[in-house]
Amino acid sequence: MKEAWKTELDELIEVLGIKSKPVAVTFTNDEVKAGKRKRVWMCNALKQAARGKSYVIDKETSACPGGGWHCGLTPPHSGPTFRGLQWFLTRGEKLTHSITSFHRMMALGAPPPTGLSERIVMGPVAEAELRPDLVVFLVNPEQACRLISLDHYWDGIPLQVELTGSLCHTAISYPIVSGHTNVTFGDWTARRMQKFASDVVFVSVPYERVHNLAAAVPECSAGSAELEIPEEFRRVVEQR
Q1: How far is it, in rounded angstroms, from Cα 221 to Cα 137?
Q2: Sheet holding 119-124, edge to edge
Q3: Which of 56, 126, 159, 180 is most solvent-facing, going by the fewest CB within 10 Å?
């Protein structure tokens, strides 16, 4: 169905009681008219998109050099710029102990999608004019738990998560590059600067997995399916 993404999550949102709007993230080379063209941090765009705003982000409007790099809009840092980044993360933000631990953090994680697209469109799924590449849910821990159960209800394949690194890496670039659903708390700097609520968890689902996730809602007890407990098992539980 054309633009199915606009409505296929309605039941899921209602059953799980999700208050924020699921965010559509689309990488594209096409000109896009809808959405704000203003300098914005990727982490702030995620927060504002969950509140109903839409953005078109390119290398000129990505306000955070790290966000532009992590999401593939700009090439990896090198030379003096890279040395400055090393200093900032180890002595400024103090997010990692040394340039060696910083190197491991970058080298052992998924690479950024460098050169993938000219721009990224980010906004509420229900208003997205382009098919999303990724849907990001800003939810509480219980809702995250239910989303994870629904996500692998059909195939049973355990999640391959990447928790560490920047929010734009774990919530956007890692699931884009890997094709895996990811769950992350984000990084402490992004949470602090953007004033995310203390109970917010980010669940990012590649759009090709969304249909099955939504279809699991009436079938799975993490959705709306009624829990059934056999009498013999009930007796065992009650005797404990």
Answers
A1: 20
A2: 55-57, 119-124, 23-28, 134-139, 201-206, 182-184
A3: 159
Query: Residues with Cβ < 8 Å from 182, sequence gap 6 or more?
Result: 159, 161, 162, 170, 171, 174, 175, 203, 204
Strand partners, 204: 136, 182
| 94 within some domain | no
Identify the CA nearest to 72 among candidates 147, 173, 2.
173
Residue 15 belongs to domain spanning = 4-76+112-231
User: What is the rounded distance in angstroms from the CA atom of residue 183 to the CA atom of residue 185?
Assistant: 7
- Residue 172 per-residue DSSP state: I
Number of domain units in the chain:
1
pTM: 0.92
Helical H runs in the chain?
10-16, 42-49, 65-70, 79-87, 99-107, 141-151, 167-168, 174-178, 188-194, 207-215, 231-239
pLDDT tens digits, 13-67: 999 999 999 999 999 999 887 666 789 999 999 999 999 999 999 999 999 988 9
Q: Assess if residue 183 is contained within a domain.
A: yes
> What tens digit of pLDDT does each residue of 119-156 get?
999 999 999 999 999 999 999 999 999 999 999 999 99
Taking phi over 0 as left and psi of -120 to 50 as alpha, with beta for the rest, 24 belongs to: beta
Of 81-90, 167-176, 183-192, where does mean pLDDT reach its minimum? 81-90
User: What is the Cα–Cα distance from 172 to 113, expressed in whole angstroms?
Assistant: 10
- CA dist 79 and 69 (Å) reads 15
